[in-house]
Write a structure and sequence with these properties.
The chain has about 325 residues and is an alpha/beta fold. It folds into 2 domains: about 110 residues, no CATH class; about 180 residues, Vaccinia Virus protein VP39 (Rossmann fold). Helix 2 packs antiparallel against helix 9. The longest helix is centred in the N-terminal third of the chain and has 19 residues. It is globular. The two termini are about 35 Å apart. Bound molecules: N,N,N-trimethyl-histidine. GO terms for molecular function: L-histidine N(alpha)-methyltransferase activity.
Length: about 325
Amino acid sequence: MDLLLNPNTNATPETESGTKPAFNTEFADDVKAGFAGSPKTLSSKYFYDGAGSKLFQQIMELPEYYPTRTEFSILKKQKAEIINFFNPSDFFHLVELGSGDGLKTKILLRQLLQAKARFEYIPVDISGDAINQLQSALSSELPDLKTVGFTGDYFKALHWLKRNKPGRKVVLFLGSNIGNFEDNGDLKFLQEIRKYLSPQDKILVGFDLQKDPRVIRQAYDDASGVTAAFNLNLLKRMNRELGANFEPEQFEHFTDYDPIAGVVKSYLVSKRNQTVTFSYLNHTVSFKAWEPIHTENSHKYSVDMIKELGRKSGFETEQLFTDEQHYFADVLFRVV
Ligand code: AVJ
């Protein structure tokens, strides 16, 4: 197995426990800018520090949180059909954006190896730790697989691929991460990806589908409070990394699903008037009683919305793979 870690990365280095975290100026700037506006906002990409990634693992196990296990079952049941659409006998680069622990992808990787597909796997993740762990797991579990990991953001990766890995590409963007953008951010993202692809290249995208709004709402407000802890961890992260003095008990997790807009919005709501000091930044921020910080969007799609999104970004919907309840869909788009 190849180990090729691109040194040209802007990922924050992980630190030994007990040492002061590396100061992440991008995080500091985003916090300052997000709290200067009205409403106050903080990007959901900051959920995933060490503690947040562990909490997200717990979310995926929750009875209320259906997306992960539903997508897993779609891939498991339909893996043979799915990989056939990849034209596996013709060499391709299988590029995964946001590979994480690769648990779902292993279903497809095993199936591809079994079918003697001609491909190499290029997992891309912002977390260097996640890429290293995935590469070492794959080298022992699937020794025949050729893996070339890339640490960095998606567009750095696509840029690098365009220059260094010519040839056919199949891109994976699973887990309904497409739903996390601002309004129209999903369209802009797919349009941007399209620029790096060529006719006949494909992308398999995981979408969470519109369904009973109560089912959706519960998935983001579980009874055991894991999602609340995940959201509140943002405050703890600012305390750890930016020297802030947030008291997490003075904020509450609030989330709701709007079935017209098709989006779950999550907030951290200040329970009282309070001022927080960021000692590393020489900066203070005041919150009014019941003032919200918007922390996440989670868009839910109809099949028509998905097809239109594909069309507007230069793709044709080749096939839609879904479960019996129509809770989730993995959609294969082909460049037109
Ligand atoms: C990782 C973006 C798919 O939006 O469902 C889970 C993140 N947030 N619970 C989602 C999340 C709260 C999740 N994604």
